Amino acid sequence: MPGPNTNPPTKKGLAYPSAVERLIDEFAALPGIGRRSAERLAFYILKSNEPDALRLAQAIHDVKKNIRHCGLCWNLSDADTCSICADPARDRTTVLVVEQPKDLIALEQTAMYKGLYHVLMGRLSPLDGVAATDLTIPDLLDRCRDPKRNPGNAKVLEVILGLNPTLEGDGTGLYLQKELEGLGVRITRLARGLPSGSQLEYANKAVLADAIVGRQRVRD
Questions:
Q1: What does the pLDDT read at residue 10?
Q2: Could you tell me which residues come within 8 angstroms of residue 33 by beta carbon, excluding any fewer than 6 positions away?
Q3: CB-CB contact of 76 with 140 (8 Å)
Q4: Strands 68-69 and 76-77: what pairing?
Q5: 3-class SS at 219?
Q6: Domain membership of residue 36 as a residue range
Q7: Predicted structure pTM score
């Protein structure tokens, strides 16, 4: 009679050890990662030497432990105030509103904008149950009402809407325009139009409409 089984229970038909299967499951839970991609990532970790693999684990640990949202603009930061809000050289009277921190990073890489930001952490989407109270809209309005809520106690003079040109983004922009009216701020939005190298037949109606409205003089 065989002795008791001392191995941990495994899933029916499981080909991998339980630790490997758990790693694959965790990778597969990431957005855009399917089962095959998760397996490739897991085997990459298995083939890596221990210091390299543990550096990845430490990086994940540090992000979850140390990264927070800026208390003023909601940008990602490792301190209570992000480096942009803390920079006295920035134009603190101008606030560019974006949906996510990744949008802020994309704009910063252009090195063309020298004002401040406000990250909404999403956009209005009634179908998905996302309301204004689920975003950081109240914090934006407070910054516009009270200079003490803005870096350097500067009064906000202009709010630039830098939302994505989608149905939800445009709806969020319209909502913000209504809420900002009467607060004494100038409301603008990022210019839109036809990107270089594109073709008219592939542009949607909103892009074409913005291109027509924002047309520029070629010569006098």
A1: 46
A2: 27, 41
A3: no
A4: antiparallel
A5: coil
A6: 18-66
A7: 0.78
Could you write out the DSSP letters of every residue in 117-180?
EEE-SS--BGGGTB-GGGTTHHHHHHHHH-GGGSGGGPPP-EEEE---SSHHHHHHHHHHHHHH
The secondary element (H helix, E strand) that includes residue 21 is helix 18-28
CATH assignment at residue 179: 3.40.1360.10
* pLDDT above 70: residue 111: yes
Number of structural domains (the chain) is 2
What are 175's two structure tokens? 């909502």
Are 93 and 165 contained in the same domain? yes
> How many other C-beta atoms can be found within 10 angstroms of the C-beta atom of residue 206?
13
- For the sheet with 115-119, list strands across it: 115-119, 91-98, 158-161, 186-189
- Does 4 have pLDDT greater than 60? no
76 confidence band (pLDDT: 50, 70, 90): very high
pLDDT, position 205: 79
